[in-house]
Amino acid sequence: MSKAKHKTSPVSIPKSPTGIQGFDEITMGGLPTGRPTLVCGGAGCGKTLFGLEFLVRGATQFDEPGVFMSFEETNEELIMNVASLGFDLNDLIDNKKIALDHVHIERSEIEETGEYDLEALFIRLGYAIDSIGAKRVVLDTIESLFAGLPNQLILRAELRRLFRWLKVKGVTAIITGERGDETLTRQGLEEYVSDCVIMLDHRVTEQTSTRRLRVVKFRGSTHGTNEYPFLIDESGFSVLPVTSLGLEHIVSSERISSGIKALDEMLEGKGYYRGSTILVSGTAGIGKTSTAAHFAEAACKRGERVLYFCFEESPNQLMRNMLSIGIKLEPWVKKGLLRFQATRPTFYGLEMHLAVTHKYVNEFKPDIVILDPINTFDVADKEFEVRTLLMRIVDFLKVNQITALFTSLTSSACNTESSDVGISSLIDTWLLLRDIELNGERNRGMYVLKSRGMANSNQIREFVLTNRGVELRDVYIGASGVLTGSARIAQEAHENSEVLTRKHEIEFKKREIARKRREVEAKVATMLADFGSEEAEAVKIIADEQEMIARLEQDKKEMAKSRKAKVGDIVTNNI
Amino acid sequence: MMEEKNASIKSPPADFDQTISKWPKDKYVLRLYVTGTTSRSILALTNLKKICSQYLEGRYELEVIDLFQHPALAKDEQIIAAPTLIKKLPLPFRRIIGDMSNKEKVLMGLDLKELKNIKDSR
Fold first, then answer.
1. Reported ipTM exceeds the 0.85 cut
2. CATH class for the region spanning B25-121
3. Which residue of A27, A39, A343, B71 could cross-link A127, Cys pair, CB 3.0 to 4.6 Å?
């Protein structure tokens, strides 16, 4: 960026910074140095203030004294008017930083009697410039001369000479002009001041007013061509150059927790990307704010700064409500890490909202911004405007590496996905909260509709608000769809009982087997016992028999002995 | 500063209100502001002198001031055009701008001639 600037500086014309917030970005440096600039616009659109701020900031910030020549307001009025913006003109006048000159022309006093010129005005202005060494000049509103001096021919010739004279003097000048019917200014001043023309506008649409600024032309320089909303508040002018920002912001791969553990797990177990844009959408009362509050609390615990815009609830109401689910936000507000900014969406126009957002963000410098909810802007058929507004906010926050969380209320009647389609392309992580109606109950389900740059979970989780905050539970998916709430509990009970029965059955079987085993073993024991006794008996019989045989043998031997027979023959035959 | 005092006028008294009431109605206090000795400045002065000597002989006081030499006066006297003739007295206060070549208008500015008379004279 600085390199590019450096490169173009010898080619492009020198510029004087105005010090007006945002304006120098649009014009890429400020107003053309040493040339007159025409600032035109309708009544009450801030021309005088623009000029005055240009001078005051020039005198205080850039050490360039300035002359303010007013054709309408008196010096006292001017001093009063800018005092409300915190500028002490008297002090600057005393220090010879600013000179005021009120040119008063009373038509009834004047009689034209022939040729004349405005040399006296030149002398007057020149004297004022020289007396303080002014580098900046504002002529507010020089067209008043046309009302005071009837001879237009002379006047036009003299104005042409005046602007040339200003260029020769080398002062950076602002000439203000009232807006005409078909021309930029009533008297066609744009004919004479052609280097730079800025148009201010104050439009009212649907009862809300918005101030806008546009650089109509800037000779010899590039500039933003859009209409930029601007704001006049207690710190002066601020213009929003946000649309000029492209898609060239720095991307962080740092991850930050959503504050809900189970949700982090759904997002690869790490949470959101820093600097990403998160949308939480869902129907009424589904817990969008709770999700946001969780995120805010988690950020505060990490020591980050959170700016919370609430458009529907007052901060106190929100804190009380969050307390009921165990999220304590008040300590963080007291610590200064969390700031609430509550305004009704209808309080200002869309552009004004943007301006206000811009301003507070610049002031508070948060790490996280929450807008709750965004769709309240969508009062009438302003989808396009709302979309542009959000795009600008998103761009602005992204460039500043601020993580943004938006909540969006979708009506349950229409498809939740399509209703937010207007902004979906801007969103990095989109959490969808939807209610699941089943068995006369309404339960909450959450899923990650999309999350750029991560492998997010595809599961629908049941979203339960407990007194310890948001909890996510796995949901049962059965033949009849997703089971939540009491249906889920019933299903759980049912499954539990089934398990129990099975367990009982197993126990029973085990016992039966044991019993059978014992029976079999008992049988085996008796049989063995029977067998044993039988065996013993048999052995006994055998022994008896053998004894008998032995005795018979003995008897035979005895017999043979007594008969004197051959012993050997008898034995072998019998056995 | 060029000063011309053709008439013998008493120095103005301290009390202004009284002065106005006592000041003769036909006594004139005039100041001509010019920007250097341009042809237009000279023309204006010549024209003015002619008119004064014709209509106000002996009852006017004219001061000619060069704004280049007294630039601060332009702001103090609320002058933007040159040449500008300021009629301080008699009231009403008037600024007559231009080179005074339109005699009728000068006379009108000096309240020396009514609109009706101008028409009649034509």
1. no
2. alpha beta
3. B71
